[in-house]
Amino acid sequence: MKRKTLQIVLLSITASGAIGTVMAQPPHDRPPTHAVPSAQAEPTFTGTVKQYLLNPHGEVDGLLLDDGSQVKFPPHLGEELAATARPGDTVSVQGWREGHGEIKAYAITGGSGVTVVDRPPAWHERKPPKHWRQMTLSPMSAQGVVQHLLFGKHGEIKGVVLDDGTIVRFPRPKHTSHMLSGVLRVGEPLSAHGYGTENAYGRVLEAESVSAGGRDLPLYHR
Hints:
Residues 1-24 form the signal peptide. By secondary structure, the chain is α+β, with helices and mostly antiparallel strands. The chain folds into two domains: 41-125, CATH 2.40.50; 131-218, CATH 2.40.50.140. The chain contains four helices and twelve strands; from the N terminus they run αβββαβββαβββαβββ. The protein has a five-stranded mixed β-barrel. A five-stranded mixed beta barrel has the order 7-8-9-11-10. β8 (157-162) and β9 (167-169) form a beta hairpin.
């Protein structure tokens, strides 16, 4: 009877120790520390804001700096960014470079020292369906000289900035970039027709057709 009791006690101690060992091990699915975004972990870029970058709905989705750097930021934070970093302000940008040198920003600090940090949109910041938003756009045209080419994360041309500050965006840049890359040149004239927005932040349109390099290029039909 004593031997059975002793065996039970030893088994209990052994099992308890095994459980403690298992519990002491870190979980295997925990992400590494460096995978968690951190403003302190990203490189910092500085520059002076030349103008806001806008999407076709007139929302601020980035900054164009005076050295030509393009800073990308989520449009649901556009108003907050515009209130923090105004044209002429010197800003500090934390983020990383994408395919064509654009800066995907994680945090932007304006001239006043206020920092806007990227975060998911709250429920009231979520946008309505795209086809509803398209109904708010107005017919627009633009003519001018190309000052800057705007690029997507894979190096595709997604738009241009003209000498008067107008932003011309191209629909489906992954499909149209190959056609436009041989035509668009900085310093060359361009005219565009499409639909867009003009507000206190600037003037922007999504082109249905462009004329550049002596060619008329239809992009798509609504």
